[in-house]
């Protein structure tokens, strides 16, 4: 029985409710008066429930599709302006006891090198990331209580926050590790993590069990209820995601939104981020084996419909996607992207030997961070290295509060411009710096509050003189 407030996975992700939602969406996909009503509601930035959003996703009428894309762009612009938050993944360990059929780290894959970074190696990786200009990391590990216990992860976080190299600093460490206990989540919170991210992979229980035949991750309920435990452990910011291509995308889309509604219903705050990875090639993995792959057009439609349904949730896209696809979905709702990523353990310091094969997936976007930053700026986006809210203790629904208080232009934008200025001073190539300086000058007038604008100008000057780490 569907109940968003239930703590039981199969009740808040109720299969019957999803099937009925899909049937409702199919029946109403050309019900234009209803679609108009849904679009009107969404335009007020109140978000949509999973049934309403599913109707939009099902709609195929070209004129209405244009309206959906236009609204997604409008919401993106209103809530996020032209800022794009930058981050990089850091792979600590690829030991794993699970047998996920879509991931090369699965336990029985004998032809990849298993590695775990020592604390000294972590320092070297993080120094390399700092030298690129990164301030925000997403830690990634496989699940292995013996080779990669929680204490190792905690020690690694401490190491990372403690590294001070030139003007570099990692100011926010997000963590993407396996589902764990409330007690361990509490420890992660105490270690100062930003967002805890866990992908569901698929919400379809039967497929989930087929795709995860053995290991702790094979327990659908334990995995699906993990975000609840994280929030019980005091982590306010949690990230959701599915791996598109494993199951029917319509099913995953409804499940994802139901999961967001569940968090909102129980904890009063929805997910901080939603990630939208697609299955892609890797050692031992052929995406062709999964017959639910989605086209670039469908992918763009999913991103637009998520943007409309959960207007205050950040959306993340990785270097799994090509430059072309990334460019398309940035306009429709994605607010965070990775740049210059390495998806192998130790990959930032050393190019991996081909025989090691320790990457979790093949990267499609191979550009350096400098190139990604310049590319964004040439499209008039402001790459942001801002971590202010986390460091000011503004967690949970603070982005929504900032939006509602109309403070995006006077808080997020100046923070983005100041962190971009730091990047330009410390790490950018001359060409990128020139583009960036012009962009900053052009964006200053958009800070509407005269006092904030004046403070911003003063701080930009101080950054040019060598001071660092200002924030609103
Ligand atoms: S997806 Fe995660 S849990 Fe599954 S095999 Fe890969 S690293 Fe292990
Ligand atoms: S001020 Fe807060 S909400 Fe705005 S960009 Fe920075 S971290 Fe995000």
Automatic annotation (TrEMBL):
Q: Which GO terms describe its molecular function?
A: 4 iron, 4 sulfur cluster binding; catalytic activity; metal ion binding
NCBIfam families linked: rSAM_HydG
Q: Name one GO biological process term.
A: water-soluble vitamin biosynthetic process
Listed name of the protein: [FeFe] hydrogenase H-cluster radical SAM maturase HydG
Entries under Pfam families matching the protein:
BATS, Radical_SAM
Recorded hits in InterPro entries, A to Z, give: Aldolase_TIM, BATS_dom, FeFe-hyd_mat_HydG, rSAM, rSAM_sf, ThiH/NoCL/HydG-like
Gene that specifies this protein: hydG
Q: Which UniProt keywords apply?
A: 4Fe-4S, Iron, Iron-sulfur, Metal-binding, S-adenosyl-L-methionine
Cofactor list: [4Fe-4S] cluster
Q: Where is the Biotin and thiamin synthesis-associated domain?
A: 275-383
Q: Which organism is it from?
A: Candidatus Flavonifractor intestinipullorum
């Amino acid at each position: 029985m569907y109940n968003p407030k239930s703590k039981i996975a199969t009740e808040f992700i109720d299969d019957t409710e999803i099937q009925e939602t899909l049937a409702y969406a199919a029946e109403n996909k050309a019900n234009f008066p209803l679609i108009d009503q849904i679009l009107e509601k969404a335009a007020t930035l109140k978000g949509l429930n999973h049934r309403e959003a599913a109707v939009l996703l099902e709609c195929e009428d070209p004129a209405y599709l244009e309206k959906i894309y236009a609204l997604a762009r409008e919401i993106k612009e209103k809530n996020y302006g032209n800022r794009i938050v930058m981050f990089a993944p850091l792979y600590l360990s690829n030991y794993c006891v699970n047998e996920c059929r879509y991931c090369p780290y699965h336990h029985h894959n004998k032809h990849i090198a298993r590695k775990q970074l020592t604390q000294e190696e972590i320092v070297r990786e993080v120094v390399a990331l700092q030298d690129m200009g990164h301030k925000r990391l997403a830690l990634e590990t496989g699940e292995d209580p013996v080779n990669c216990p929680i204490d190792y992860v905690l020690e690694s976080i401490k190491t990372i926050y403690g590294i001070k190299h030139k003007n570099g600093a990692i100011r926010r460490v997000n963590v993407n590790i396996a589902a764990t206990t409330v007690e361990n989540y509490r420890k992660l919170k105490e270690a100062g993590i930003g967002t805890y991210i866990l992908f569901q992979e698929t919400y379809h229980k039967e497929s989930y069990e087929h795709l995860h035949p053995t290991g702790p991750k094979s327990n659908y309920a334990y995995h699906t209820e993990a975000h609840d435990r994280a929030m019980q452990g005091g982590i306010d910011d949690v990230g959701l995601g599915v791996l598109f291509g494993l199951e029917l995308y319509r099913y995953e889309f409804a499940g994802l939104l139901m999961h967001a509604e569940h968090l909102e219903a129980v904890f009063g705050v929805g997910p901080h981020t939603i990630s939208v990875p697609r299955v892609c090639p890797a050692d031992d993995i052929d995406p062709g084996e999964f017959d639910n792959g989605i086209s670039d057009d469908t992918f763009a439609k999913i991103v637009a419909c998520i943007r409309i349904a959960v207007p205050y949730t950040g959306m993340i896209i990785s270097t799994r996607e090509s430059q072309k696809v990334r460019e398309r979905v940035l306009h429709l709702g994605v607010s965070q992207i990775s740049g210059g990523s390495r998806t192998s353990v130790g990959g930032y310091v050393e190019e991996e030997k081909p025989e090691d094969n320790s990457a979790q997936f093949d990267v499609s976007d191979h550009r350096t961070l400098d190139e990604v930053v310049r590319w964004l700026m040439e499209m008039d986006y402001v790459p942001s290295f801002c971590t202010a809210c986390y460091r000011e203790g503004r967690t949970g629904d603070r982005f929504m509060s900032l939006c509602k208080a109309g403070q995006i232009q006077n808080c997020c934008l100046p923070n983005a411009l100041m962190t971009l200025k730091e990047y330009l001073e410390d790490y950018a190539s001359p060409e990128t710096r020139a583009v960036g300086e012009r962009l900053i000058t052009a964006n200053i007038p958009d800070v509407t509050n005269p006092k904030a604008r004046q403070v911003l100008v003063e701080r930009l000057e101080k950054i040019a003189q060598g001071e660092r780490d200002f924030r609103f």
